[in-house]
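Recap from last week: sequence in, structure out.
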Amino acid sequence: MSDAYLETEAINTMSEIPDVFDTGSYPAVNVEDTEKGIIITITGYFSCGYEDQLKLAIFAAAEKKPKEILIDFSKVEWMCSCFIGVLIEGLKRCRELEINLVLARIPARLMPKFQQGCLVHMFEIRD
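Predicted C-alpha cells:
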C-alpha cells in the first residue's frame, strides 16, 4: 500500500469522526425497568473510551434476569465500531442467562456498521 493511499484513508476516516467537544452531545446511557423487560436508551456520540458505560448497563440489566433487554439507538448520533464488541459480549451474556437482547430503532446512518459487523444476522433488530 502506498503512503498516499494511507494518507487518504486516514483523512477519510477522520472526517467521519465528529468533534464531540463541539457538539455538546456527550454519550449517556439510561436504564428503565418496564413490565416487558428492561430498556437501555443510549444518547449522543459514542466514541472509543465510552464503551464501558454500555457494557455495564447491559451486564447490570442482565443480572436482574428480565425476559428481554431492549437497546434503543434512536438518539445515537454517531457510534464507533468498538461498540460492536460490547454488543456481542452483551449478547453472549444474555444468551447464557436465556435473556432476549434486542436492538431497536437504529438510525439509517448507523446501519452500515451493523451490516459490516454481521450484527443484523446475530441480533433481533426492531424498528
